[in-house]
Amino acid sequence: MKFEQRIPRQTSAVLFDEAQGYFPGGVNSPVRAFRSVSGPPLFIKEGKGSRMRDEDDNEFLDFCCSWGPLIHGHANEYIENKVIETVRKGTSFGTPNRLGNQLGKLILDHHPYVERIRFVSSGTEAVMSALRLARGVTGRNKILKFDGCYHGHVDSLLVKAGSGLATFGTSSSAGVPENVAADTIILPLNDRDLLEETLAKHAHEIACIIVEPIPANNGLLIQDPSWLECLRIKAWKHNVLLIFDEVISGFRVGFTGAAGYYNVKPDIITFGKVIGGGFPVGAYAASAEIMDNIAPVGPVYQAGTLSANPVAMAAGLAALELCLTPGFYELQEQKTHAMATAIEAYAKEKGYPLHVPHIGSIFWLAFGNERITRSDQIDAANMEYFKVIHHELLQTGVYLGPSGYEVGFVSGAHSIKDLEEAVSKICAAMDVAFG
Ligand SMILES: *Cc1c(COP(=O)(O)O)cnc(C)c1O
């Protein structure tokens, strides 16, 4: 397959070339390098609402939305004004500030499952801190995670399954010591017998079970609600903590995230992405009893120079206030559902092997016609189709995250007309990929 460029990409190409001399692979986060799609990565210079523009002045309808944070689209005026107002008064003091209180209150007032929260500066940091908290509270070292869930680049979680079914992990990145990886147990999603067996054997050394309740970093692997309930019950039964990593699902599928969506109460929740309104914010939250193990009250140390700085808090506060507009989540869900079903209907009519799992305002282009709920059901060979679709969409002005394992996001700024445009362009791209 030849990937002919019908849009100018010279400026991005030149900038990417220059970036090679500054950053490993020319990027500051690996997927951005476009290694699994065609051409150099696009250097984006500005965005407004549902669209963004690259350095060659190509305009794209954006479904990456900065990998999820931008639930109100680019340069939302309400958020922008709050941020500018705050920046003018100084960006960080390293002290408590009123905006932090306001964001903390807004979240805790509207979330039935958490009583105290601690702000950090990324999703990874939130997960890392939550693991330390779980280990500190229980005095145990091992953690249990699931294949197909991503939890940021925390050492203990950069771990893949070894051979065998229930396995102690081996590191999936150089630089992660094997003895760190060995403290992580990895199970397949939704294998209830294996979960029971593993807990029966190892619960006494397991601090926590960590799961993405809506796994959305390795395709969109929507789980049976009964499996999440099973996790809750097993964690209680075996006296281990349950962590929902809601960095992607938090404030995305509803204000109370997946915990509220499925009505399952985890012991600790991690947040990121949407919570910062486009700024670097993460958080972890739990009951007052669990959170009182954190310094300065308790023995679990965790700190941050720029944690809860007023600018980031202002952005998060403005974004979450907008999320609380009555009907906001229902509308995003309806729009996303309409788009996904329209794409699926076209694929079905044409006999193309593609379906569109979606939940809230998250969607995924999944190849094949079977429902996919575990990562081992994803056929890597199909990613060649994604490459073609991604390329075609760039040519016609639609931007998807540059990997077939990434999900797409619909924002409040995507109009119904935007989504109709996307449907027709995605259908045309499928014609090229499968036709
Ligand atoms: C994005 C993500 C992370 C990592 O967050 P960063 O802000 O990129 O460090 C962790 N867990 C989940 C579920 C995520 O989606």
From TrEMBL:
The gene is hemL. It comes from the Bacteria. The lineage of its organism: Bacteria, Pseudomonadati, Bacteroidota, Saprospiria, Saprospirales. It is found in: Cytoplasm. Pathway: Porphyrin-containing compound metabolism; protoporphyrin-IX biosynthesis; 5-aminolevulinate from L-glutamyl-tRNA(Glu): step 2/2. GO terms for molecular function: glutamate-1-semialdehyde 2,1-aminomutase activity; pyridoxal phosphate binding; transaminase activity. Homodimer. Belongs to the class-III pyridoxal-phosphate-dependent aminotransferase family. HemL subfamily. One of its GO terms (biological process) is protoporphyrinogen IX biosynthetic process. Its cofactor is pyridoxal 5'-phosphate. Keywords: Cytoplasm, Isomerase, Porphyrin biosynthesis, Pyridoxal phosphate. It is an enzyme of class 5 (isomerase). The keyword Isomerase applies. It catalyses: (S)-4-amino-5-oxopentanoate = 5-aminolevulinate. This is Glutamate-1-semialdehyde 2,1-aminomutase. GO terms for cellular component: cytoplasm. The modification N6-(pyridoxal phosphate)lysine is found at K273. Its EC number is 5.4.3.8.
